[in-house]
Write a structure and sequence with these properties.
The chain has 421 residues and is mainly alpha-helical. It has one domain. The protein is 50% helix and 5% strand. The protein contains 14 helices and six strands. The chain has a four-stranded antiparallel beta sheet with strand order 3-2-4-6, with helices on one face. It has a two-stranded antiparallel sheet with strand order 1-5. The termini are far apart. The N terminus is likely disordered.
Amino acid sequence: MASVYGSLAQGGFSSPVASFALLNQIYFVLISTAVLAAATLPFLRASVLSYGKLDATPSSTTSTSTTRKSKKEQPSRRDSWIKTVKSLQVPKVWFSHFYVWAPLWMIYMTLDLWVYSSSAVVLPPTTISYSTRITVIRSMPTILTSTQKYWSLLTFLNYLGIMPAHIPLAWAQSATEPLMVRAWVPPPHVLLTMACYLLQVIRRWYESWFVERPSVDAKMHVAHYIVGITFYSAMAPTTWIDAYEAWLRQGGAISPVNTTTPSPMDSMLFGLNGQCLLGLILFIWGSYHQYNCHVILANLRPKPSRNAGDKSKEKPAYRVPFGDWFQYMVAPHYSAEMVIYLGLYLMGSSSPLTASSSTAPTLLCAWIWVIFNLGILARETDQWYRARFGDRYATVGAPADTKAGRSGRAPSRYILVPFIY
């Protein structure tokens, strides 16, 4: 019997290729590669990359000579393709869909994980059950074992061979006594990561509905919309999948019935370490400043008027934001987002079981995607500001005590990261 449990602990509950974490990591690598391609390939840069105000002409006026020249020249086939691809747009206000979907999906995935990873007793054939089939007795609240059925994504992914199985049905065929499968209780650092991510998307939901004032005419490419929905779909399991799969690999779910041997991962329940607390501090710090920056951006636009006769006031001249981190950076709301996801990564990877700093590789891949995506968007924002306001825009709203450089003016704002970029 010991050999059965030993092989379970070494080989896991399913095929070695079954890894939901690996699937998410591949997804983050693919979208990171895609955004780099969109930023470097001229065709994608012209047709897909820019959205919102970045997709509009920086200057409010266009030279007459340029207009006449464009009328005389016939568009090339490449220009026609760019125009066709670029026309696949949706309203930019659909950004709010991301933050409605994200918390609802996170809640669903948490409940699905609770059911999927619940404890159970597996009765092998011809033992207590007197049956030729394996019998599984789950231990769940009555509300979850009622006759009402629900669609389980994790069960479906397990059927496809992607999600590791929590209950080792295949191994139970060779067992000679009942097998107890423990429920997975997320360790404190994982629960904290999940809770902080849920708070983040709920806050963004609130901001998108009650704080932000996007232009009703702004558009974004449908590719941005698809990536946004899929990103937040992947982030929900990303907050816990690495810890769960590590727990399965170490045999945390396996024990004979009536065994009190502690799980190898039970030591993770003793508390939070310094890295986790640092991640929490960064998360709170980044969230505070991102909210302030979003309020500043929203205040650049007047509140929409309810009077039909005030349409002339709906499109005021765009102004340079200043205040909070805008004093020092071009896109500080993006900088704050990077700090927030760095905090999530530090919390999620703070397992006290190992000295490795990469115990949450899926969260690390998500953070790298955030850096690539927002770094490119911040650069595009900087170029748009310079084209619209000139180089002197960078000093608008600078602190009064800022010393002028050799050029006689205050130093420019950093794009995203002070002293680096």
